[in-house]
Amino acid sequence: MRIGEAAARAGMTAKAIRYYESIGLIHPPARAQSNYRAYSERDVHVLKFIERARRLGFTLAECRTLLALYEDRTRASADVKALALSHLSDIDAKIAELKSLRRTIETLAAACHGDARPDCPILDELAKRDAS
Fold it and tell me: Among the three residues 12, 28, 57, which one is the final residue of a domain in this structure?
């Protein structure tokens, strides 16, 4: 199948597939006599694997590692779990950071009168210069 069909079946764009090929995340498929890329069912399966991993927030480097682990039938599941737990730790850190940002913005919004006056604590906070 051609790249457009493979992309549609994998839930991604043809541009993404070309990018993954250019960075070596996936192997370029064989070319048909017409010189078009000829994707197989296995290629689509790998693309779906990557798309699912990306939707779960795994980085391209982590996707590369996950693919290598997936293709290695002698892998230890502990290696896969360690990668997942590391990713989970990253997610927890991002959640904590977002909660902190939310509290800060909530405090600033509460301090703003939100009326016709020009003074605004939100803008004042953003305009503060660092002491460093």
Answer: 57
Most confident of 33-42, 89-98, 108-117, 122-131: 89-98
Task: Give the CATH number of the domain where residue 26 resides.
Answer: 1.10.1660.10
Dist. CA 126–CA 77, nearest whole Å: 47
Tokens of 66: 């996950």
User: How far apart, in whole angstroms, are the C-alpha atoms of residue 14 and residue 1?
Assistant: 12
Note the pLDDT tens digit of each residue in 42-92. 999 999 999 999 999 999 999 999 999 999 999 999 999 999 999 999 999
Domain encompassing residue 96: 76-132
Helix orientation angle between 41-55 and 60-71, rounded to the nearest 10 degrees = 130
> What is the rounded CA–CA span in Å between residue 8 and residue 14?
8
State which amino acid sits at residue 25: L
